[in-house]
Structures are given as C-alpha cells and as structure tokens.
Specification:
177 residues; 68% helix; 0% strand; Ferritin; binds fe (ii) ion; mainly alpha
C-alpha cells in the first residue's frame, strides 16, 4: 500500500485486515447464497424471489469487490480458495431451504443474514471512526446498503402477508432501490 496511505491508519492494520477479511468472506457467501437461491427457487413465488435475489447477489458481489480492493490497499491478500470462505467468515452461509417452494422461509433466512451484515458493518464503522477515514467511508457505504436490503426484504415479506414485523405508521413503503 502507499506509504502515506498506511501512515494515516491509526489502527493495528493486521487486526483491521482480519476484520475486513471476515466481511469480505461474508459477502462472497452472501453473493453465492442469493445467487444459488435464485437458481433453485421454485414455482410462482420462486420466480418472484429469483428476480429479486439475482439483484441482491449483484450487490453483495460488488461489496466483496470493494472489500477486496481495500484489503489489498492495506497490504493484505484476499482469501482465494473457496474452501476457505465459510471457515473464515463471521457465520455459516445461508443455504436455500430444502423446500424450494418455501419462499417466505428463504426470505426470513436472508433477512437474518442482512441483520448480521448490519451488525458487522456497524462494528467496522465504530472501529474505524476517526482512525481510518477510507475504511470508515466504505463501512458506512456498505452499512447503508445492508440497511436498504433488510428493509426491502422485510417489505417484500410483509407484502406476502406473513410478516411478523412492527406495524408501520404510514403504511408499508414499496421501494426496491
Ligand atoms: Fe453486502
Ligand atoms: Fe445485503
């Protein structure tokens, strides 16, 4: 990484790379989870899910790319082998439901994963605030995306009539992105 770029990071860079690596692997798993779920989901509800999950997959892959770039900037090396993805991530990957027509169940599983991502980027933002402006900006950007993902999936689940969510004051908003 650049000399001045490194000098301004007021954190243990190895520790930061360790955290970024977990986030990076979370994103690769999230990408694959959305992507494979989009492929195998069945029936009418599955078709609806497939379209949305393909979009989510693209977002998560974009997040992985940005994290890989930051890891390299900091002098680290992104994990390469797929066998290392899950062991190095924060949590196990989200597999599609065995019942491929269980659209609500698959939505609920992804909502949980999005909430975990929100927790992870909130932690990264707090860790880097005032100490590493570049990573902080990235954490904030990804956090905002995950907040949007959670809200979108919650709304989608709500529209399907089986949400167990707090009622919204002004009715449910419909917004993809
Ligand atoms: Fe993400
Ligand atoms: Fe997400």
């Amino acid at each position: 990484m650049g000399t001045a770029g490194k000098a301004i990071v007021e954190l243990d860079v190895d520790q930061l790379i360790t955290e970024l690596t977990k986030d990076y692997l979370d994103e690769l798993l999230a990408f694959y989870s959305y992507w494979i779920t989009a492929q195998v989901a069945e029936g009418f509800h599955g078709e609806e899910l497939a379209e949305h999950f393909d979009e989510e997959a693209k977002d998560e892959l974009g997040h992985a790319r940005k994290l890989a770039e930051r890891i390299i900037e900091l002098g680290g090396s992104p994990v390469v082998h797929p066998k290392d993805w899950e062991p190095g991530a924060h949590a196990p990957w989200t597999a599609p439901r065995v019942d491929r027509s269980d659209a609500d169940g698959m939505l609920q599983d992804q909502i949980k994963a999005e909430r975990d991502a929100i927790t992870a980027y909130n932690r990264l933002a707090k860790m880097t605030f005032g100490k590493d402006p570049v990573t902080y900006a990235l954490a904030s950007e990804l956090l905002a995306d995950e907040v949007r993902h959670e809200e979108f999936l919650e709304n989608l689940l709500g529209r399907r009539g089986r949400a167990h969510l707090e009622p919204r004051e002004h009715g449910e908003r419909e917004r993809i992105r």
